[in-house]
Write a structure and sequence with these properties.
It contains no helices and 9 strands. By secondary structure, it is an all-beta fold. The chain folds into 2 domains: 70 residues, no CATH class; 52 residues, no CATH class.
């Protein structure tokens, strides 16, 4: 509510409700499967996102509404989004045995890790070790 305004500056924090994207209902708790739970503090109107244990990405944004102390509701809902910092993947050197003169396929991402589990396979680029530049 810190950046929300009305003409009388009297937004009622107890009126904050999340909008369920499936039903349109106003709720104080919203579970997003595979991501986590959004909750509204009934006294302050603060909204908290609690991620599921294995969720590491940015949660799906949610909409909310609020009223002033006279009961006048906002004309349109506002959106809350959370942007967690994304950590870079950790790459590990790769080595594969092969027979002379035959092709060798190396699955270079197999031993690499990423906290968000979202390594983009199309981002793999070969680097020429002699000039430290991408091979085209």
């Amino acid at each position: 509510l810190g950046n929300d305004k009305d003409n009388q500056d009297d937004i009622d924090p107890k009126s904050v409700k999340l909008l369920d994207p499936n039903t349109g209902d106003e709720v104080t708790e919203l579970d997003v499967p595979g991501e986590g739970k959004w909750t509204v503090d009934p006294d302050t109107g603060a909204v908290t996102f609690t991620p599921e244990p294995d969720f590491t990405g940015d949660p799906t944004p949610v909409k909310y509404t609020a009223s002033d102390k006279e009961g006048n509701k906002a004309d349109t809902p506002a959106t809350i989004s959370v942007d967690y910092p994304q950590d870079a993947p950790t790459l590990v050197d790769d080595k594969e045995a092969g027979k002379t003169g035959e092709p060798v396929t190396v699955s270079v991402l197999t031993n690499d890790t990423d906290p968000q589990n979202d390594i983009d396979p199309t981002s793999v680029k070969l680097i020429d070790p002699n000039i430290q530049r991408q091979v085209k």
